[in-house]
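Handout, section 4.2: multi-component inputs.
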Amino acid sequence: MHGTRILDEADRLMTVCNSCRYCEGLCAVFPAMEMRRAFSDGDLNYLANLCHGCGACYVDCQFAPPHEFNVNVPKTLAVARAESYAAYAWPQALSGAFARNGLVISVIAALSMAAFILGFAALNDRSVLFGVHTGPGAFYKLMPHNAMAALFSAAFLYALLALAMSVRTFWHDISPPIGGRADGGSIFQAIRDAGELRYLHGGGVGCYNEDDKPTDRRKLYHHLTFYGFLLCFAATSVATLYHNLLGREAPYPWWDLPVVLGTLGGIGLIVGPIGLFTAKMRRDPALLDEFSYGMDVGFIAMLFLTGLTGMLLLVLRETSAMGPLLALHLGAVFALFVTMPYGKFVHGIYRFAALVRYAQERRTAV
Amino acid sequence: MSDRQRRMSLDLARHRANGMSSKYDVLVIGGGNAALCAAISARRGGASVLVLEGAPKFYRGGNTRHTRNMRCAHDAATEILTGPYTEEEFWEDLLRVTGGQTDEELARHMIRESKDILNWIVEQGVRWQPSLGGTLSLGRTNSFFLGGGRAMLNALYLTAERLGVDVEYDAEVTDLLIEDSMFLAARLKRPINGKTEIRATSLVAAAGGFEANIEWLKQYWGEAADNFLIRGTPYNRGSILKLLLDKGVQEVGDPTQCHAVAIDARAPKFDGGIITRHDSVVFGIVVNKHAQRFYDEGEDIWPKRYAIWGRLVAAQPDQIAYIIFDSTVVTSFMPTLFPPIAGQTVAELAAKLALDPVALEKTITEFNAAVRPGTFDHTILDDCVTEGITPPKTHWARKIETPPYLAYPVRPGITFTYLGTRVNKEARMLMKDGKPSANMYAAGEIMAGNVLGKGYAAGMGMTIGSVFGRIAGREAAKHARN
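Output:
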C-alpha cells in the first residue's frame, strides 16, 4: 500500500504492464518499469514524471477500458504527476497552492498586474504614466531601473531557490539508496531528450490527443512555447548585459539582439500556448486529468499573457499606451516568476530530473 | 468538416450513386490481421470493400489484439532481426512443431510469401521493433510489433479507412447465402443502413476459430470445457466457420484439438490475454487438487514446456493444478499479474489452496528426497534430476525448502482451435467435392489448419493471417474485376 490512492492505482497498473511489456518500445516509462519488480512511492513518482502523456500506450493497450483490467496509464500517471508536485513543493506549507491552482495563479496574476498599475499611478504623474516616452531609458521614467532589477531579481532568485529545494527532495526520492549524484553524460542525454521531446512521440508516429489518429501537433506547440520562453529569457539576459556592461539602456531598436530574440520568443509564447490550449480543449476525456485542468490552463494563460503584453509593449512602445502596458507586462512576468515553483512550470523541472535518472539507469544497466 | 464527416459524406454519396442496394466487390467477414490484410489488399487491387467485424470497436480484431509478433523468413539480419532465418529453416521448424501434419505445397508457398510480408506490412503502417525483454530466444526469427497487436491492428484499420474500405462493427453475420459453391450474400443480425442482407461479388472469410464457443468445445471435451478459460475475446465463436462447413466447404484440421496453455486460475473467463500466462513450471513442481504430481515438470525448455501444460491441466480432476515453488526462485521468471499465494509452512500454503496439507507435505518431502545434486541452469537442459519418484523431474530439479512457500493456481487457457476450411494456394476455399469455390476465399485462423495441423511456434498465426489475407484480398479483387 502506498501513501495515496492514485499511487496504489499506479502500482496496480505497473504490475499489469510489467507482466505484458508490449509497450516497451513506445517511450522511457516502460523500460524503466522493467528494471523493477516492485514499486516504491519514489519509483512511481519517477515513472509518473517520466511520462510525457503522449497517449500511445492507451490507444495500443488491449486492456484499456472498457476491458475489466481497466489499464489507463497516461491518465493515472498524469494524476500521480500532479500530486507529486504538491508532495515535493518547498516550503511544504505552500503545497496547498496546487490544490486550486488555477484560482491561485489567476489571483496572483491579477494582484500583481494591479499592483504595478497602481504603483505606477501612485509614483508617477498622470502625464508621465500616459505620456509618450522614447529613446534609451524610456521605461525607467516609469520605474527606476534599480528598483525594477531588485524586485525581479528577488522574485527570480526566490523561484530558483524553491525549485531547487523541491527537485532536491524529488531526486532524493527517486535515486538509488547509495550515491545518487547526476553525472555529466546523463545530464547531457537528458538535455537532448528534453530538448527534442523525444518521448512525446508515440514511439515514432506522433502523439494521441483527441482520437486514435496520431499527430505531432502538441509537440510542435510545446516546442514553440518552450523555445519561445527560452528566447524571451535570452532577450532579458542580453539586455541585462547591455545595461550593466555596455551602459546601453532599454528600449532598444527593433533590429537589436534583445528585441529580435524577444520578438521571436514572444511569437512563440503567443502561438504555442494557443495551440496547447486548443489541444487541451480537444483532448479525449479518457486521457485528461480533469483535476489539473486549472493548473494546466493557468500556466498556459500566464505564458500567453507574458507573450502578449510583451508584444503589445513592443508595438505600442512609442505611444501613450506604453506606461499601462509596461505595468501589465511587468505584472505578468512578476506573477510568472513567483508562481513558478507552485504551478505547472515545475513539470519541466521534474521531468528533466526523471530523464537524467533514466539516462543514468540505462547507462548502469548496460 | 472533420475527416470522418468528409469520409462519411463521400460514402453516402457513393451509396446513393449505387442506389443503396449496392453490391460490394469484396465482402470481408472478420476484423483481425487476416481480415484487414485482405481488405487492404483487395482495395489496393481496385475493389470496393466492406469489412464486417462482429465485435464492438474496442474488441475488434479477435486474437490479433493479443499477439505481439510475426514469424517471417528472411535471408539476412535486419534492423530488428538479429540474423537470417531461411525458408528452409522455417520449413523445418514447421515440420517439427506439426509433426508433419501440414500441406507441404501450401506451407512452402506461405513461407516464400512471408519474406515479402516483412516489407509489405510496414507499407500498411505497421511498425516493427526488436524482440521484447524476456523473449530473446525469438530475436532472430520473429519480428515484434511496436506497441503490440492492438497497435498493429490500429495501424491496419487507419490504412484501410484511409484507402476507402468501409468498416462496420457489431456486425454479426447470422447466415451466408451460398449456391453451387458460389457466395451470394451475407445476412446480418442488425441492419446496416436499413439492410439486413449484404451482397458481394467475392467473399473473404477471416473470422477466426471457435475457441470462445464453450458449447462447441463441450462436444469434444464434455463438461470439463466449463472450467476452461478463454485467452481471447468472447466474440471468437466460430459461427462463420460453422456456416461454411455446413454449406459444403471442405474441412481441415482436427476438430477436437485446440491450443491450450496453463494460465492463472484467477484470470477472467475471457480476454485475459498474454499476461495471465505462467512460465514458472520449470522452477518448481505442479500438483493437482489431490496434491499429487502428474507430469515431468522438467521435460523440455521453452516454448514446449509452456505449450503442453494447458492440455495436461485439462486432463486433471476439475481442470485445476498448482505450480508450487519456494522463495529462492521468485525472481527467475517474469513478474506476474497475480501475486503468488504464500505460506510460511507447507501446511499453511496447503490450507490457502484448499489442498490436503498432509498430502502436499508428503509430495514435497518425497520430491525433495529424490533431488540429486547438479548444476542448475534454466537456459539449457541441465543435469538437476530426481531419482526414484514417478513421474520424475528430468531437469532443473531443486529442493523446495526455503519459506515462504509459494503457489500459482492454473487452469487451461484456450488460445485457438485447429478446425478450419480447406483452401488452395490462391486462398480459395475448396468444397467437399474437392473443387474450388467460385468466389469464396479464407484467411487466418479459419484456415490455419491447412498449414498448422497441430502444435504451434510463436508468431506463426500472424504469418498465416498476413500472408493468406494478402493473397485472399488480391484474388478476391481479381475475381470481382472479371
